[in-house]
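Board notes (copied after class):
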Amino acid sequence: MPSTALSLATLPGGLVALPGVYQPQSDTRLLASALAHEDLGPRTEVLEIGTGTGALALHAAIRGAQVTAVDVSWPAVATARLNAWMHRLPLRVRHGDFEARTRGRRFDVVFSNPPYVPAPDNRLPSRGPERAWDAGLDGRAVIDRICAYAPALLRPSGILLVVHSGMCGADETLDRLVGAGLAAEVTATASVPWGPVLRSRRSWLERQGLAAEAEEREELVVIRAQKP
């Protein structure tokens, strides 16, 4: 889970993170592996929705892509900009809602590790580290918006990569993307131990039917979608 220290956290790979910014974890690494298979280069325009520390955006920039990264969190924006400056990599980081900050633009590759943890409060948090993971009662508040807006974000033959927990319903994501006119499939999975947030919500998750009794692991999925 994110650092709550009152100073910069030093992370692997020479990255830093301001307090409350989501730090790279298993879902980040799974998405990074999927992104490594995509063709990125100097003419590739890339968008990351919810950049956090900017770790994945910087990996794309290292490969020469022209990268725009968006986050609703000012600490995340500041962290991503600082990491780009420290690594001397060009990265366009924007603060705000991804729809508003990308309106009228099209990208070759869009990727996201969005908030996807089911939460007892259906309202999305407006501040605090919970913004990086809380995503409404079913965990799909942000995922569904990405699915709906993906056709407007992608150029012809453009690629969308999204990682989330199987708890949110991989089939639901596939159905929404196919319904939006994209070809979609699960391309990577990983089984990981529950983190502290899920463990703290065990009773609620069981009552909602989102987790089985004594369940200790969750499946992460990467979904790849392509526009015709």
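Comment from the instructor: Confidence is low (pLDDT under 50) at residues 1-6. The radius of gyration is 17 Å.
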